[in-house]
């Protein structure tokens, strides 16, 4: 039996960051950038108005107040997206909308609220005018003007290789005109369920059989963490069936199997693994999920890492979070693969006696009055998938702790941050 850390270290030593691909920016959400992105121009490209108002020379407004307005001649108006060809000179103004480039000669914008003007609609373009406006407040040079390049300067590195593309980064890429980006490609992860008892959903359920749920929870986890699941279906408990299915998965970047790694009579995965590849280890000191296989299959020159997850639905999901998720995340080029852990106060008694394994019990973490509390989600059997559905976290009870009493502080690993109504956010 090896520790959780050692198991993870061994697995990670077998997986490598995948190659880059170039793809449309919106399809790259959550992927890691493999290039530095340099701004080809200033953003904003020109000085422009931060408000709707009048572009003026600040010097023209000296002394303006509600009791002593300064009247200026309005020589034009200008919406965002257009350039005014004329000039603002002493005593003149241009009616300007937010985002429109500041006309030559102007050095400030006086907002509508500080003017009295003829009734207008927002302009749709640019035109010359000959009207008058009364300015009710003195402007200072620079008022309500956004400077060219104040967001990003031409030549500046906008995004560095290695960043994960979130919505803000996708927006930045678009703002510098990029429609595609070079990112580490997503890993294809094949998922194979094993067991004579398993039936594919959509089929009738004969007596003594159960539906294959692991393929679905695991494929959903793969997708959540950025991989592309390739569901291979169910292999019955025969070496031939298993070998045939495994071969279908060898074009993937990683293969996950569930079940068939414990000591049961029909547990074949380990035998097949030994025949077709190499086994790295068998058991990790964790509960649930002790039986765990790791190794690789050979396919020509390639080595396809394989994680043999336990069959019990909770065990397979917990083992995925601890071992498969980091492997996927590493292949995607990310460097932080741990789920966040926090300290929380146990609401229940948690017993880990006579068991030198780390205990990942399913729990709900809630925040009350600035403190976090963890309650167990009912029966903790490793087959009780509903305990996982009710949870947003796992306890991390160390191997050498026998009992946690209510009120004691424990470490919990957050699977989700939401506290109930919507678990579904990654
Ligand atoms: P095994 O590792 O084959 O001994 O399986 C352990 C337990 O997990 C058994 O109760 C299996 O029926 C159950 N199990 C195995 N594979 C699946 C699966 N794909 N979906 C749901 N339950 C499973
Ligand atoms: Mg089985």
- Overall 3D shape: elongated
- Which second-level CATH architecture of the largest domain applies? 3-Layer(aba) Sandwich
The CATH topology annotation of the largest domain reads as Molybdenum Cofactor Biosythetic Enzyme, Chain A
Please list the strands of the largest sheet in the order they lie side by side: 7-4-6-5-9-8
Tally the beta strands. 29
Keywords:
426 residues; Molybdenum Cofactor Biosythetic Enzyme, Chain A; Molybdopterin biosynthesis moeA protein, domain 3; 4 domains; 6-stranded mixed β-sheet; 7 helices; 17% helix; 33% strand; binds adenosine monophosphate; binds magnesium ion
Structure characterization notes:
It is a single chain. The protein is of the alpha/beta class and 426 residues long. The protein is elongated, with a radius of gyration of 31 Å. The protein has four domains: 4-18 and 186-331, MoaB/Mog-like domain (Molybdenum Cofactor Biosythetic Enzyme, Chain A, 3-Layer(aba) Sandwich), CATH 3.40.980; 22-40 and 160-184, no CATH class; 48-146, Molybdopterin biosynthesis moea protein, domain 3 (Molybdopterin biosynthesis moeA protein, domain 3); 341-423, MoeA, C-terminal, domain IV (Beta-clip). It has helices at 4-14, 167-175, 214-224, 239-248, 269-276, 313-331, 385-389; strands spanning 20-24, 37-38, 48-49, 53-56, 70-78, 92-96, 108-111, 115-117, 126-135, 145-146, 157-159, 180-184, 188-194, 198-199, 210-211, 228-235, 254-258, 277-283, 286-287, 291-299, 302-309, 341-346, 350-351, 358-359, 362-368, 371-376, 393-396, 403-404, 409-414. It has a six-stranded mixed β-sheet with strand order 7-4-6-5-9-8, with no helix packed on it. The chain has a six-stranded mixed β-sheet with strand order 16-13-17-21-20-18, sandwiched between helices. A five-stranded mixed beta barrel has the order 22-26-25-27-29. The model has no long low-confidence stretch (mean pLDDT 93). A hairpin with a 2-residue loop joins strand 25 and strand 26. The chain binds adenosine monophosphate (AMP) and magnesium ion (MG). The site of magnesium ion has 6 residues, from loops. Adenosine monophosphate is lined by residues 193, 195, 197-198, 210, 212-215, 258-260, 262, 264, 310-313, 383.
């Amino acid at each position: 039996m090896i520790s959780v850390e050692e198991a993870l270290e061994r697995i990670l030593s077998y997986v490598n960051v995948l190659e880059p691909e170039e793809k449309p920016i919106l399809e790259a959400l959550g992927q890691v950038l493999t290039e530095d992105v340099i701004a080809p121009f200033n953003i904003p490209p020109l000085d422009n108005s931060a408000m709707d108002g009048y572009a003026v020379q600040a010097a023209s407004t000296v002394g303006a107040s509600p009791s002593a307005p300064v009247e200026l001649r309005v020589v034009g108006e200008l919406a965002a997206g257009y350039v005014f060809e004329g000039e603002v000179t002493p005593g003149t103004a241009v009616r300007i909308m937010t985002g429109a480039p500041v006309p030559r000669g102007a050095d400030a914008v006086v907002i509508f609220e500080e003017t009295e003007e003829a009734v207008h609609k927002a302009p749709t373009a640019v035109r010359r005018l000959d009207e008058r406006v009364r300015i009710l407040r003195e402007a200072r040079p620079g008022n309500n003007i956004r400077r060219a390049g104040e967001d990003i300067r031409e030549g500046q590195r906008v995004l560095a290789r290695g960043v994960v593309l979130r919505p803000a980064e996708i927006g930045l890429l678009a703002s510098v005109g990029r429609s595609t980006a070079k990112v580490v490609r997503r890993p294809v992860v094949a998922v194979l369920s094993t067991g004579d008892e398993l039936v594919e959903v959509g089929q009738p359920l004969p007596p003594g059989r159960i539906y294959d749920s692991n393929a679905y929870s695991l494929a959903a986890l793969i997708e959540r963490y950025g991989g592309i699941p390739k569901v291979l279906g169910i292999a019955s408990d025969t070496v031939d069936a298993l070998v045939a299915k495994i071969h279908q998965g060898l074009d993937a970047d990683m293969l996950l199997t569930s079940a068939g790694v414990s000591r049961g009579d029909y547990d074949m995965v380990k035998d097949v693994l030994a025949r077709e590849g190499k086994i790295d280890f068998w058991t990790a000191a964790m509960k649930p999920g002790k039986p765990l296989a790791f190794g690789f299959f050979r396919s020509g020159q390639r080595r396809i890492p394989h994680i043999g997850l336990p069959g019990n639905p909770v065990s397979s999901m917990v083992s995925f979070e601890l071992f498969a998720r980091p492997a996927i995340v590493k292949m995607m080029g990310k460097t932080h693969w741990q789920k966040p852990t926090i300290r929380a106060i146990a609401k229940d008694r948690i017993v880990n006696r006579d068991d030198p394994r780390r205990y990942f019990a399913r729990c709900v973490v809630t925040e009350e009055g600035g403190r976090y509390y963890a309650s167990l989600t009912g029966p903790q059997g490793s087959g009780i998938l509903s305990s996982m559905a009710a949870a947003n976290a796992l306890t991390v009870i160390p191997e050498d702790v026998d009992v946690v009493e209510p009120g004691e502080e424990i470490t919990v690993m957050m699977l989700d941050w939401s506290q109930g109504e919507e678990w579904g956010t990654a």
